[in-house]
């Protein structure tokens, strides 16, 4: 392992419900601000859940060279282009592109695009044959031909944000999109790190993008009873680790980072802003709807990532500090996730677990689904840079069963050198990345 | 770059496609020159440009391919998930593995935490009949969709687990539960490139020591109204009325090629560290010699038209050769998509010429879309499974298609014996991602 090249972060960018640049979003998190409000994308007033954390006035105009090249971009591609452009610029590639486009890759965890909802619904309804309880095939295609459009349909493919970014940034290296639900963009960062470490690319753009704030997205999660149905102020709805937590709140957006070998970064005079130290991936292999109750899969992902980073989870550091300084929790605000994640962290760190602050920014940002992990990874990097821990807001009523340090309600100053970021997907895929301060 | 790495081999293959379940069914169908394509049965597709497809034969019952205790869960499986579950069962059996799904309670051959799973998936279309039965309960007086009524009561007509049928990672979810694969797991969604990209990720996962074996591949069914419509919108399907013969409808690389035909299908291979396979006395069916991935530059941005991508596909083929430490002269056949979509064919042809030079017109090409259709995210795994059989049997399967293939060895032909040491498998999908795998004959 000692011979493996070091992989550093040299750029980051995001488009989120709390803002569209690094500082605005960070400052709002430090102020315990919330991005939740009534849903504006469609009329959700009668839905069990009526609120979400939406990106305000999404636009790619500030971020792309030629708007006409991205004329068909849907929301996922728009968010991704905005975040990737920021990361690319911070890395210094906007001025001087990488020398070899085939050594620059792309690994995204992007979700499926937004359905052309009303046209799709009405196509189906127009072809409905009540007698057979089926859509009539001939009437369906006739209705579809008049209502649905090729560009909107093709843009729903989950690899479209990949195609847009590759076109915009001129990327020709290894290109992957994964869709492991809520774990996707942590997985994307972990796999991108592995690709560079193995030598299959020098630079990778990695991250995620997603919105499910559309009628069938909200319907799907409402039917699963996974969303908060809080009846009061929406900014109080997402309550990770609190005893009265009642589900997650949807967010949307994108987070993107630039990863490269330390050697590549230094050779071009780029400044590393953090170092990726380890990655772990596992499957619960338990049940379709439930998380393994002892946190087996979550713990396995954390242990792999820590082992790769050379961190013993039961060993204090020489200066007496806990093995790591911060855990960015998956912390969705569902009963099940938050309690099992707590169990899993205790399983990994044993008696040192209470010494490690662990917060969930989903209380402020909502759950960006496939994009959540990337945004949370970036929060870890900022915590290292700025010596501050983002809070778990709406933590008025702690759950006595959940007894770790969740950084309740207010941001906290702390020395931060090593962070661990968790993401666990619906369907049982678990991913963890460890990131640490860059030191020569 | 020469690196010492853990050798990876294939010890089992499993497929589900128009020829049925199991790679032997696929292999004999191809070798006998049959076509699995016929008029679409799943719904009335007679109003579409292409009215035929390769569907899994009637009689396929997923409940028979899962442990009894798991039968209830088959109710929340979209067709794509069923295909992956069927392929996994066949692959695990062919590899001679004991898993929880094969014999619950017996010691598994591969420790669960060392068994990974990478399954490519497509954009799973929801069942329009199921959705519409609920939608029509939320109609306004004018017959339009009423969002208010939907939010209030309409949505309750969908089963609570409705969403779980359609999440792409549910292919991996069900397969990992059935076979108790607790190792690294991913779901790659890059259209037709998904299967080979997944295999590449499994290979790298085993190489770096994060797993000893992986189920790798992909599955998809686009045989539903939205699936067929999206391909029609992308202008990728040939015109084929219900009564027409399908046997030469897909004509890869031919000057009169008119597009492809859809299939439903998928495959999984068991990738295993060679030392693990040898230690258990497994039959090694092929060696995984090299892998590379790349992104094509696409003038249309979205990668529907790949006609100018030949250079990028060639670069990825060359990267895979470097990864394998081989020259192109060591390749004895190519197993490309050969979809019959003119733009994609043009890119593949240009890539073959760039990599193989004059040999591009003489190197044998294995084609299968004319028999089993374009199975989307399942394509790459089906290509892999066929390539493995080619190496095992030292045989090139028959090809359907036209009498000529633009000068390439991809025209209609019966199966033929061949000395095959290495095969190059290539998939470049909608969206512009390309993946290349090089397989070698088992020593």
Describe the 3D structure.
The complex is a heterodimer of chains A (440) and B (443). Chain A is 31% helix and 19% strand. Chain A has a ten-stranded mixed sheet with strand order 7-4-8-9-1-10-16-15-11-12, with helices on both faces. In chain A, strands 2-3 form a two-stranded antiparallel sheet. Chain A is built from 13 helices and 16 strands. In chain A, a hairpin with a 4-residue loop joins strand 15 and strand 16. Chain A folds into two domains: 390 residues, 3-Layer(aba) Sandwich (Peroxisomal Thiolase, Chain A, domain 1); 35 residues, no CATH class. The model of chain A has no long low-confidence stretch (mean pLDDT 97). Chain B is α/β, with parallel strands linked by helices and 443 residues long. In chain B, the strands form two sheets. In chain B, strands 1, 2, 3, 4, 5, 6, 7, 8, 9, 10, 13 and 14 form a twelve-stranded mixed sheet that branches. In chain B, strand 13 and strand 14 form a beta hairpin. Chain B starts with 7 loop residues before the first strand and ends with a strand. At the A-B interface, helix 3, strand 6, helix 4, helix 5 and helix 6 of A face helix 3, helix 4, helix 5, strand 6 and helix 6 of B.
How many discrete domains of chain A? 2
Percent helix of chain B:
25-40%
- C-alpha-based Rg of chain A, rounded: 21 Å
Poorly predicted runs of chain B are none
Strand content of chain B: 15-25%
Write a compact overview of the structure shown:
The complex is a heterodimer of chains A (440) and B (443). With 440 residues, chain A is an alpha/beta fold. Chain A is built from 13 helices and 16 strands.
Summarize this structure as a short list of keywords or feature phrases.
heterodimer; A: 440 residues; alpha/beta; Peroxisomal Thiolase, Chain A, domain 1; ten-stranded mixed sheet; two-stranded antiparallel sheet; 16 strands; 19% strand; B: alpha/beta; 2 domains; twelve-stranded mixed sheet; 12 helices; 29% helix
